[in-house]
Amino acid sequence: MDERQVPVVLVHGLRASRTMWRAQVEALTATGRTALAVDLPGHGHRLDETFTLDGAVDAVAAGVEAVGGRAVVVGLSLGGYTAIAHAARHPQQVAGLVAAACCTVPRAAVVRAWGLAADGFFARLPDRGAAINQALVDRVLPPQAAADVAAGGFALDVVGDTMRAMGDATPLADLARVAAPVWLVNGRWDHFRGDERRFLAACRDGHLVVVPHATHLVSLVQPVRFTRVLLDVLDDVDAREASAVRFGEPPGTHATDDARLVRHDDDVVAEPVERGRRDAS
Fold it and tell me: Of 229, 251, 227, 226, which Cα lies nearest the Cα of 240?
């Protein structure tokens, strides 16, 4: 590994596992960068555990420690909410945060409804909803992405616990506490984009990236485009970390870069990269 490259920790979405990040882990490893995908409680090899937000944050913190104690943390959907909470609680571990497909405030009524559906309907099916889940996976994901997600197994019984835990999530307040640069990455057709302007405004140093032709599972339906965005983010973070070291500052204390230096290829981002209002002001 190039010591100038910041490691990456990747956090999966609901019912999936670390295997959903295969394409990104392979691409990052090919560049010589350390990349580690972790399993959250109730998922993957931790299937027999109960999901809690505290336990999920602890899993991310342990992953960061495993790669050296400081990393860019990348999360999608449930993983994005978890990564935001982790960044607020463990700021010194986070050189940068990529929160994908999680720009909707968890509203009590919606979270409660999903939890009741999981406990009252899917849990009572003979296969606990496995057939419905597989049909959805086959319909919304390309074949390779579907295979990557299936490789780690599906956490069919975790939804109820997760919805109860997400009732305590406070992503807007958490983002306001994060000093590290934050990239909010959403698919153009993601139904979780409803509050993205509020999320962006909450960031101290925020960037909004919209990936064209992508739905909620942006890293799976557009893996190449998502990975290119991630590589741009990592170049930015590496430069920031190197600048802090050069000027003798502790990591994470450097000034934010000029908005004009934030760059992405036109065919990757459908809309201009935007900066958080607090930073722009």
Answer: 251
